[in-house]
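note to self — DONT lose this again. spent like an hour looking for the file last time. sequence + predicted structure for the chain T wanted, 194 res
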Amino acid sequence: MQPRNRPVHFRSRRGRSSTRRHPLAGGTIEPVSGGCKGDLVEPEWLFYAAVVEGVLTIERVSFLETPVDLVSKEQLLETIDRALDAGQRRQIIFATNAAKVTRCRRDPDFGRLLAQATYIIPDGAGVLVPLQWSGYRNLDRVTGVEMAELLLQQAHDNARSVFLFGASKDVVEALGQRIRRDFDRLRIVGLCDG
């Protein structure tokens, strides 16, 4: 039996008492004592995504007050595949780099938007190297472009559909044509520039 829409549970490592929910599914936050206040990288949210069978764990840390998920390419692909199999269709992946971290610090609205992403992956040495210096040694750089290609291949292999959103109209249409050429089993259900 495969459970559908199982909750995602968060535990705050900072002892926060506020109530938040993960955008992927319903979830709860339980305050936990401890934390690393004052460090460059602070463990912030540890969430357990219990989807299908087993528990997949992705740790979310705060890098200069910007959330980043400590996840490998393989873990992310598996987690997304299981979530889709469990009926959780909305998966938002945000690839963050040093420029986006800086923007989050200057623009609170952008930071709030980023925090709503299902997954926030480290894209760039400006984020990855400080995380590694802080003790997170086994991290891969997960670029947005590379992740998009891996996700398109996975969607193609599983005969899934995708919706392309973003960039200029010409760019998104050219991308749609390239995807149709390279991934013949993949169905594009829509295109939208933005």
